[in-house]
Amino acid sequence: MRGELMEHGFSLTDEPWLRLPAATGGPAQERSLRTALLEAHAFGDLVVEVPAQRPAVLRQILLPVVLDALGRPADEREWVTWFSAGRWTEEQRARLEEYLDAHQGLFDLFDPVRPFGQVAGLRTAKGETKNAGLIVATAATGNNVPLFASRTEGDAFSLTPAQAAHWLLHTQCWDTAAIKTGAVGDPRAKAGKTVGNPTGPLGQMGVTLLVGTTLFETLLLNIPVGAPPTSADRPQWRRCEPADPRSAGTPQWEQRLPEGLLELWTWQSRRIRLFPEATQEGVRVTRVLVAAGDRMPYTPETEPHTMWRLEPTGGRNTGSRKGGTVPPRRPLRLQPGKAAWRGLDALLAPERVARDAGEKTSGFATSKLLDQVGALAPNLGEAYPLRVELSGIAYGNQSAVIEDVMFDALPLPPAALETDSDVRSALLEVAEQAEQLAMVVNHLSADLRRALGSEPIPWDRGQRPGELVLHALDPLVRRLLAGMRGVGDLERIEAGQLAWEQLAWRRTWEIADRLLQAVPVGAFMGRSITQGEGKPERTYRVSPAEASFLRRRAEILHRAAAARRDHPGPDDQ
Asked: Which among 277, 293, 452, 514 is placed 20 to 30 Å from 467, CA to CA?
């Protein structure tokens, strides 16, 4: 067995641990970091246990290795040259090989001196360790273990080296907040613990990842163009020496902003140590130690993987927080249960337009990478199958527990990212129409309930029928997004919008008809309700509520309404 089990060596460079399918399809197989990068053109998308691991693996190891070894394209023209080749040039392959060989010792997961992404010798004053399930986001630990579950907190949780590597990177990006174990050597630890820890850096934003047809394309799509990294900007594996003032290899930590993109991507938000042991199945990680790590006062504007919420800069002061002034933009978080296409106004908000608008009004700005793709859209081609993956985590009480893991993927026509394109205008209109249709059905429900003498369903409790509308429209919107690829002329765009409206017309009526069919006879008599002091009574009945719904639906879906007037059919609804 490799190096004998007593050493527990596991080189991420040469041991297979990344699950990748062939670009042409087929089952995923585990590959080494070296194979994954050098042959990136031959592989499809990363296969992971949970979607949140994908941005963690890309940001913590794949993208930084490429950026540190090759630099990044200086401008959009050079980016297009790289991308058009479809694979690394011989010179780029040689530089990647040379980099991996030179730093091979820094990528050993269980190295006794410099373990990858960890602190060698990390320990507590009493020598405690915790179950390996602590770093597994999908495993219940502590008080979260169900009373009658099939396992208890005391049962061993065993991870293979490949699994441990994935969950290690995931923890650095998404770990929960609040109290962490106090490590020996941490000057801010008190009574065996460190308090005030924020979540991992990705837990404070909705992550927007661009995906191409191969791993090579995905890597380039997620690298912003610009100047090469400065000498102070280094990945964590080149900051692991204890003598380094910015060392990630000691229990000490600090609060500051990263020096650049490499440090941002490999940010060590926790000090971690994995404890491997030899078992009959091979080397397994069963115990871990997770302590406090470096903290960012806020997400820097250099962050390329998030959309932004803009605050007006010309009005009141944006305020301040501990550790620095709050910038005029904040990362946009995802909302549980909300489809990604419902946020197209933020996803398609060009940076240059948002920057001008943000001086006086609040709004959104898309991610730097999506903005970059918008500028490169003519080079990618209208039919390029770009996919956008959005992931996030909703935390519970004091951000100390994970309540929900959010993930969605959208096919996105590159033309939609161009500022003045007809495709962009059409998609924004479709998303707005869907929201308006949900609102109209909610108003219908409210009027029918008032006709029965009841109160409308509160917006923050229960499920309102508008959510059923959005659920019914979801596959239609996704089909339209995929169908808009390669569509350039206005006539075909209008035809696509008409088809969408005709389908949305029927789907919306199906939900509304259920509400109308469920209404008892008494609602047709109606109820009179006083609107307020000095205002006349208003009578709510079924027939005016239905008429109002039909009128508003026709106003929203105006193309479908016009087509029905010109070519009436047997279905009046």
From this structure: 452
Does position 315 have pLDDT exceeding 80, yes or no?
A: no
Report pLDDT digits (tens) over 25-45: 999 999 999 999 999 999 999
For residue 495, what are the contacts with CB-CB under 8 A and spacing of at least 6?
Answer: none
For residue 345, is pLDDT > 50?
yes
Name residues whose C-beta falls within 8 Å of residue 205's C-beta, 6 or more positions apart in sequence. 299, 303, 305, 306, 331, 332, 333, 392
Contact 109, 165 (CB under 8 A): yes
Task: Give exposure, 309-322, as e/b (b: 16+ Cβ within 10 Å).
Answer: bbbebeeeeeeeee
CA angle 289, 294, 299 (to 5 degrees): 130
State how far the Cα of 489 lies from the Cα of 147, in Å rounded to an integer.
61
Is residue 365 scored above 60 in pLDDT? yes
Residue 56 has which token pair? 């963690």
C-alpha distance from residue 251 to each of 117, 317, 552 (Å) = 12, 37, 62
8 Å CB contact between 453 and 434: no
Q: Within its chain, how far is the Cα of 476 from the centroid?
A: 22
- Distance from chain centroid for Cα 327: 21
Q: Is the dihedral of CA 360, 361, 367, 373 positive or negative?
A: negative
For 190, phi then psi, to 5°, come to -135, 135
